[in-house]
Write a structure and sequence with these properties.
- There is one protein chain.
- This protein is 77% helix and 0% strand.
- Helix 3 runs parallel beside helix 5 and helix 4 packs antiparallel against helix 5.
């Protein structure tokens, strides 16, 4: 077997892992299944952080789409009464997200997660559930 064949074979084996690690729609993944790819608590916490990062990036992307949609909508409105309203709307969109983020962290923190090494992991599940809910909310608004 040549070196290029080995590289191709290794690429085929690694491709599904990389696709799973960077989902197009991370909100559609089952958090338990994703996190359980880790073998121990440390690895599961890493998977939880990875999924959290993917979900937060998806929210950020959806917010950018929402802001662009608002800008495009206001381009058409040339009337004087709409002057300055776009800035107000963009500020409202950003402050709403900041408020939501504070809510999600507080809601996840106020739940009792027990003690031991699994407490951080249980917190992550709660926070991830909040992120998935937010993605669903943003996708509905953008339709």
């Amino acid at each position: 077997m040549s070196i290029s064949s080995v590289k191709s074979f290794a690429g085929i084996l690694l491709l599904p892992l990389s696709l799973l690690a960077t989902p197009q729609e991370p909100g559609l993944y089952d958090p338990v299944e994703f996190i359980n790819q880790g073998v121990n608590t440390y690895e599961k916490l890493d998977k939880a952080k990875e999924l959290t990062g993917l979900l937060e990036a998806r929210i950020e992307h959806l917010l950018k789409l929402k802001i662009q949609d608002a800008k495009d909508s206001y381009k058409v409105l040339g009337e004087e009464r709409f002057e300055g309203k776009l800035d107000e709307l963009l500020e409202l969109i950003n402050s709403t997200q900041e408020t939501w983020k504070a809510y999600a962290v507080a809601a996840a923190s106020e739940e009792y997660h027990g003690g031991g090494t699994g407490a951080g992991l249980r917190y992550s599940y709660t926070y991830i559930d909040k992120l998935i809910e937010r993605i669903k909310e943003l996708k509905i608004v953008l339709k």
